[in-house]
Amino acid sequence: MENILVLKDYKTVPDIVHEYGPTLKFGHIPLVIDNGSYQCRVGWSIYEEPHLIFKNLIARPRKDRCKKDAEPPVTPPIQIGNDILNIEAVRFQLKTQFDKNVVTHFEVQEQVCDYIFSHLGIDSEGSVPHPIVMTEAFVTPNYCRQLMSELLFEGYGIPAVSYGVDSLFSMYRNDIGDTALIVNCGYHTIHIIPVIRGKVIGEHARRINLGGSEMISYLHKLLQLKYPVHVNAITMSRIEEILQEHSSVALDYQEEIRKWSNPDYYEANVKKVQLPYVQTASSSGLTAEQQKERKKEMARRLLEINARKREERLAEDEEQLNQLLAIQDMIEDGDTDEFNEAIKGFDIKSYEDLQRQISNINVRIEKNKQRILAAANAEENLEVRPTPGRMQPPSDPEAFQAWLNETRAKYRSLVARRESRRARRAAMAKRRSAAAAERMRVISRLAAAGDDFGDQDSDWDAYKSISREADSDSEADGERLVELEEALREYEPPPAADQRHTTHQLHLAIEPYRAPELMFQPSMMGNLEAGLAESMEYVFKHFSPEDQLLLANNVFLTGGCSQFPGLKERLERELLEMRPFQSTHKVVKAKNPSLDPWYGARDFAGSNEFENWCVSKEDYYEMGGEYLKEHYASNKYYKSPAPIADNNLAPAGDANVVKEEIVVDC
Amino acid sequence: MTGEEEKPCFKRENKFIVKSGCKKRMWRSLKQILTAERTLLWPNEAVLYYSINAPPTFKPTKKYSDISGLPAPYVDRHSKLFYANVEEFATVRSLPMDITAGYLQLRGANNLVG
């Protein structure tokens, strides 16, 4: 096949511990951490590239369940970021410090920080002596920043920290001027942030609560539902790969899906993704022929054992009979004394008893002999009888093919009949369907039927047609179906190896467009928020026409999910649609949508003014954890207001309730 | 895991990591944090997390076939699935309950009444 996509199933490489040279150790070098909800990128501000890039995830294996006293419980180590070699193996133990795009789980964050600092090789005693530039979500709640500062200052003893917004860093990194409409497509959210003359207009920014992770889980579920057989082979990581490498944004979604409804277009453009395929060995490594042979052999052996047992019993009985006959002879010879002696040994009381026993044994011997005879005959039969009920194909290849086709046709017609019967029964169960009406008609005719009902055999079929239960016909059909199925399974030539591969392929048609389209139509997953284009239009409306034009001429696309092919073109089309006639617009894509925030933050840390934008340890103790030094790429700082005192709360309900007396006229 | 043993040298103490067996601190979810934030009297100009949520959509939502993604003019009254043409209808009717429920959940339409 020409266009089969093979999944690469990327493996992570565990991070090395980087060298912590004297320049770093004593240089007071700022450390730049782009703490994103998808990936964390960490590096020193004096280097060009980040040292660590890893998924912001940890896998905490569950404790050993076997609690033996002998050995102390061994806890497998926590795996963090790139330590997780096989993410699917620990999928259910994964944890992240993020809730949406905000850090909320600081125990996990601390573990991630430990990972970061130890992999950078930091070995100074008792503290991390570096100022830190940390990215945070746009409008991070103060509560979260406070905990982050607490962790950094008190947990790691850092001298200073500066917080910034990833998308703003990315914007300044790309040097596109100081007025832009940032569209930041992230892992959990899409932000639309207007920046005018270097000023972030926060009150008109908007956030769509949807991102890459939602697209992944959407596509994941979609394909699992489409291919229920491969539920376990369709993993999140594979979906992520499909989304990253084979998906794109449609320029015009309606037009795109209209194209796909044409079967020829579908055939020509469908993407086939090969799932790993393992040649399944037949259950015991034996062919059907061998299994049959083995079964026969076992049956024969069983028969032999039975026959031997019967013969042994026969010999035993004959022996006993001889003894008893000898005793009978004694009494006939008149040896009463000897007889009395002998019957004591045999537990016989009298002559009558003896005779009864002899006749019993005779009967037994007779029966046994008959059985042995019957068994021998059966054995002969087993050799010759060609298992009745089984379908026997003709041996001639041409006739065999004809027979096979015929069997298939029979099978199909039976299945069709069963389906139609099922459908009829299902329809009959419902009221007001045609089938139910027909049933009622038959019933009423039955009631009105005269005495001649039953003269013809076909009269009785009326009962079959009104029965809601499975009737004898369906039972007979069922048996026949099983028979045909067996025959087909046995004699149908096995599909060729490459054909069997095709059953392990995912056919992707609209799906690679469908998942990214969520950005524009969140309603597809039941999210009632406006999509990206509509939200942009909404944001534009809040500005004067001049500013609108400025923003539209500098739409800046950044964030990991902005890397879908076609997204830029789609945004341009949407802008053309929403902007006034003949006005201009321009979409700029970040040079490196994933890493530009880190580069931007690195530039920031290297600037001369960096010191002034840092929250120092003194500031932290003075102003509290939520405090933030504002700079060009930061959030705005609003001091948290004091909690409202209790007496300011809404007065107790009673005072406000106007009591009305209701007079009821009698 | 015991906190002390694994503590890296650059730390004096673990701040938030607790020893296994000790009572775990419950971390507030984002939703709880936002609710708490909302109860405070913020100055008017303050922009908070919840105040920049995207507006609800004003455009009519388009219907797509649940199984193929094609534009879907029809709804199967029985399973409530959208479908695009006759062949799909046959497929929809043959789907087992768990699959139809899965499709509805994917579309966020599983808890609608009626």
TrEMBL record, chain A:
Signal peptide: none annotated. This is Actin-related protein 5. Its main location: nucleus. It is found in: Nucleus. GO terms for biological process: DNA recombination; DNA repair; regulation of macromolecule metabolic process; regulation of nucleobase-containing compound metabolic process. Residues 288-327 form a coiled coil. It holds the Pfam family Actin. Belongs to the actin family. ARP5 subfamily. InterPro entries: Actin, ATPase_NBD. Gene3D superfamilies: 3.30.420.40. Component of the chromatin remodeling Ino80 complex. Keywords: Coiled coil, DNA damage, DNA recombination, DNA repair, Nucleus, Transcription, Transcription regulation. Proposed core component of the chromatin remodeling INO80 complex which is involved in transcriptional regulation, DNA replication and probably DNA repair. It comes from Manduca sexta (Tobacco hawkmoth). One of its GO terms (cellular component) is nucleus.
TrEMBL record, chain B:
Coiled coil: none annotated. Pfam families: YL1_C. Residues 63-92 form the Vps72/YL1 C-terminal domain. It is found in: Nucleus. Keywords: Nucleus, Transcription, Transcription regulation. One of its GO terms (biological process) is chromatin remodeling. Signal peptide: none annotated. This is Vps72/YL1 C-terminal domain-containing protein. It comes from Manduca sexta.
